[in-house]
Design a protein that fits this description.
With 92 residues, the chain is α+β, with helices and mostly antiparallel strands. The chain has three helices and four strands. A hairpin with a 3-residue loop joins strand 1 and strand 2. InterPro entries: RNaseH-like_sf, RNaseH_domain, RNaseH_sf.
């Protein structure tokens, strides 16, 4: 967290954490999003990816859900960082 706050100070940046996972990496996936906007209470969002949702699909779904959530805000943030542990989803 120190490294994140050094590069993206929490007082000026919205921190968007995403994660997705699936049972045995191939089914019943879902995702979660945690958003911390400066000066506001954190927001948590989760959703199911469905019976045929893999780890990869769940990770991509998390990034999509996070983006969708932030875009719906009336006062959009000017600086936001997406923090994900899924290299394949970020590369895609």
């Amino acid at each position: 967290m120190e490294e994140i706050d050094t590069r993206y100070p929490a007082a000026r940046w919205t921190h968007i954490f995403t994660d997705g996972s699936a049972e045995d990496a191939t089914r019943n996936g879902g995702c979660g999003v945690f958003i911390k906007k400066p000066g506001l209470p954190p927001v948590s969002v989760s959703t199911s990816g469905g019976r045929l949702c893999s780890n990869y699909k769940a990770e991509v779904l998390a990034l999509h859900k996070a983006t969708e959530t932030v875009l719906q805000w009336e006062n959009r943030t000017k600086k936001a960082v997406f923090l994900s542990d899924s290299v394949s989803a970020l590369q895609a």
